[in-house]
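histidine kinase, pasting as requested.
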Amino acid sequence: MKVWQSLSQVWQKRRIGVDVAETSLQQQLLAAQFEVILLRLMLNIARVEQPNEQLPELLHDLQQQLDSTFAMQHVPKLCFVLCYPFTQECFIYHAQSTQLERQDLNQIQSVLLNQTYYAQSQVENLLQIQNHQARLLLLGQEMVVWRLYVQQTNAIESSLQPHLQQLDDALQQGFQYWIEQQQKRQAILLKERREFAAELHDSIAQVLGFLRLKSAQLHSLCKNQPSYSALLPLSEDLASYTHYAYQQTRELITASRLAYQELDFASALKKVMDEFAHQSSISFELDNRVAHLNVSAKYAMQLLYIIRESLSNVVRHSHASSAQVRIEYLVSGALQICICDNGRGIQLKNKRSDSFGLEIMQERAERIGAELRFVANSPQGTCVILHLEQH
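Structure tokens follow.
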């Protein structure tokens, strides 16, 4: 009997040892699998080129891997939130299986944009937004990245906490790699723009400047010499089109310089108005009632082009003594820009040979979904009114 008991005790000890070893191996295997998941995650984030398409797919795959790896534990639903302080934009990326109500989306965007824009130096690392938990991953001047757990009402299991901390670290590193790649691409693009602006200035702009002067001289000669009167319509068209081509080239140069100098919209607009003020005797006034322009950089550049063309028309055609640019948000939330002068007014029915500039302005407005109107100013002059609904 004693022998049997001794053998039983030995067997139990060995069985316990085997169980402990098996558990240890399972834990090591789980840790190795999780490290592979994190490494792939960092690599996939760094390779993202189209966030709207790739980040939701990445989140879907990640959520499936996490649910499979930690099958016995409740893994929170994960989202990424990217906020852009300059344009006041906020994008929430989630897997298609994740459900978020419109009210929740609005609340998340409002809170995180407020943290991002108004309190960057004192932004909280961890926020509870109703039933959602947000954690700050990256805080930069151009972009802020948050990790969001949605519908996180229950406490996260303690055994899962270290893994979720590893996940946050991997997400932070992955997005850091991604931002660095974007910055490298942006640096290359800015270098190309700088070289493009220099080439335009040194070659085409100088040639067009010479042609503009010669075509203007030719037109003046045709106007003053009766024997050349038959050539007057042709010389007028030639002078107008070469002048417009020169002007457009100068605008491309200015836009390229504004892009690589990374000026914000208000600074760029002031620079444009100062340029036209130096070119004419017209008094220009800027009435900017918008502290921060809530549009993307792409939209801001189109708005700048439209304003620039309007001011160019004021200088060339209006015979005005003063002009004003007013920027404001209406009660409806729409952005409205008015460029008004006290000149002789515009006659849209009697277009000049270079009036295609107005058509280009309309095309630019349509490109960003804005409405552009030309109305009479009171008591005299013209108002160009641009209306852009905010979405």
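Note for the archive: The radius of gyration is 32 Å.
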